[in-house]
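Exercise 7. Given the encoded structure of a 87-residue chain, write a plausible sequence.
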């Protein structure tokens, strides 16, 4: 979703588009999860709106942010990304 930052007098509004960054690699053990989680945390601490989406079946990024029992409770009551993709 684009945000209108400000409208200079007599000009078109300045629109700031969101930035999407993906950490993708088919090889295991290259640090995708560590980079994604730490970069999301860094952006959040800098005050940027940040969304970290964990599509890895191992859910390591998720477990870096919430506990396993909290995730299990959420998965049971609300479902997971896997549920959305299978449906």
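Solution.
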């Amino acid at each position: 979703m684009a945000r209108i930052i400000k409208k200079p007098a007599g000009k078109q509004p300045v629109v700031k588009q969101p930035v999407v960054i993906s950490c993708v690699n088919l090889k295991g053990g290259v640090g995708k999860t560590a980079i994604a989680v730490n970069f999301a945390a860094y952006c959040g601490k800098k005050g940027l709106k940040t969304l970290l989406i964990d599509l890895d079946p191992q859910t390591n990024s998720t477990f870096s942010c919430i506990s396993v029992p909290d995730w299990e409770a959420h998965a049971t009551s609300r479902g997971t990304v896997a549920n959305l993709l299978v449906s």
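Remark. The longest strand covers residues 3-6. Students should compare their own answers with the one above.
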